[in-house]
Design brief:
The chain is 28% helix and 17% strand. The protein has 9 helices and 8 strands. The protein has an 8-stranded mixed β-sheet with strand order 1-2-4-3-5-6-7-8, sandwiched between helices. Helix 3 packs across helix 4. The protein starts with 5 loop residues before the first helix and ends with a helix. 45% of the residues are buried.
Length: 294
C-alpha cells in the first residue's frame, strides 16, 4: 500500500486530455468556489482558498506550466484553460459556482462567465485582473525585475525572474505589502526563522514562459471587453488602490463592462490585495456575497 501524497490528501489529479494532467486542490465543504491563480502561482491565492474553505468547497487548480506541471505545446491559449475549467465543472456536476480569479486568473474567470452555456457559474469575482483591451487604460507590464523599494535593505528586492510579472504583487514601486514579508526595519514574519530561504515573490521562469504562451504577445483580448456584456451573474471587481501593474482605472472600466458589477477599491493595497490588506479585501468580498444572497 502506498502512502498518499499531499495532492491525494487535499485534492485530485485528472487528465482532461491525453498527456495533460491537471492538479486540483480540493478542500472544505459547501457551496463550490473555483479559485484561479495568477502569475505568482497557487501560493499567491492560498489565503483566498483558506478564507473560503471555512464555509465552502474550494477547488483551486494549478494551471498547466506552473509548479513544474507539464503543458503540451498545443495547450497554449486562455481559451484552452477556459474550456478545461468549464469541463471540470461539468464533469463534477457542480452548480452555482463562485469563480474567483486573481490577475491572470481573473482573465480566465471572466472568459468562463462569458462562455458558461451550461449555467454552472453563479457568481464572479476578479481581482487585479487583466485580459480585455481597454483603450486609454493600459496594463503596465514590467519590463524587468524591479529594484528594492526605496529605503529597503538588502534582501527586500527580487532576483531575476521574480517579481517581474503580473500576479506577483510586486510591480515597479511596489514593495511587499502586509502579509507579504518583512519590510525595512522589520523582523522575520511567521515561519521565517533566521537562515530560512526567502520565499519567491514572483513567477518562476517556467511560469513566465507558460504565461507568455497563454496570454500571447499583447497579453490582451480585443473582443473580451465587448463580450463581457453577456455576463448575467453577480460580479465584483476588487482592486488595490496602489496596483501599478493593473491600475485601478483599468479595473473600473473592467467592472463597467459587466452588467450590474460592483467595484471595490482597497486603499493602500497593490496587485494582490488579499495578501496586502486581507481584512479589508475579504470584508469587501463577504459584503458583496451577502448582498447577492450567497
Amino acid at each position: 500500500m502506498t502512502t498518499p501524497d499531499s495532492t491525494e490528501l487535499t485534492g485530485f489529479t485528472v487528465e482532461p486530455y491525453p498527456g495533460l494532467p491537471l492538479t486540483v486542490r480540493d478542500v472544505g465543504a459547501g457551496r463550490p468556489v473555483l479559485v484561479l491563480h495568477g502569475g505568482g502561482g497557487p501560493a499567491s491565492v492560498s489565503g483566498v482558498v483558506d478564507h473560503f474553505a471555512a464555509t465552502s468547497r474550494v477547488l483551486a487548480p494549478t494551471h498547466p506550466g506552473w509548479e513544474d506541471t507539464p503543458r503540451p505545446e498545443w495547450f497554449a491559449s486562455v481559451g484552452d484553460l477556459v474550456e478545461t475549467y468549464l469541463d471540470l465543472l461539468d464533469d463534477r456536476d457542480l452548480r452555482d459556482v463562485l469563480v474567483l480569479g486573481s490577475s491572470f486568473g481573473g482573465w480566465i474567470a471572466a472568459e468562463m462567465a462569458v462562455r458558461d452555456r451550461g449555467r454552472r457559474i453563479g457568481g464572479l469575482i476578479v481581482m487585479g485582473a487583466f485580459g480585455p483591451r481597454i483603450e486609454g487604460h493600459e496594463v503596465r507590464f514590467p519590463t524587468g525585475p524591479p529594484g528594492p523599494p526605496p529605503g529597503a535593505g538588502s534582501g527586500a528586492g527580487s532576483g531575476p525572474g521574480e517579481g517581474s510579472g503580473p500576479g506577483d504583487g510586486s510591480g515597479p514601486g511596489q514593495g511587499p505589502g502586509p502579509g507579504q514579508g518583512p519590510g525595512p526595519g522589520q523582523g522575520p514574519g511567521p515561519g521565517e526563522g533566521s537562515g530560512a530561504p526567502a520565499p519567491r515573490r514572483g513567477p518562476s521562469p517556467a511560469a513566465l514562459q507558460a504565461l507568455a504562451a497563454y496570454a500571447g504577445p499583447t497579453k490582451s483580448d480585443p473582443k473580451l471587453l465587448h463580450r463581457l456584456a453577456r455576463v448575467t451573474v453577480p460580479a465584483l471587481a476588487v482592486w488595490g488602490g496602489n496596483d501599478t501593474v493593473v491600475p485601478p482605472d483599468y479595473g473600473r472600466a473592467y467592472a463597467a463592462a459587466i452588467p450590474g458589477a460592483r467595484f471595490a477599491l482597497i486603499p493602500g493595497a497593490g496587485h494582490l490585495p488579499t495578501r496586502e490588506d486581507p481584512e479589508a479585501t475579504f470584508a469587501a468580498i463577504d459584503a458583496f456575497l451577502a448582498a447577492a444572497g450567497r
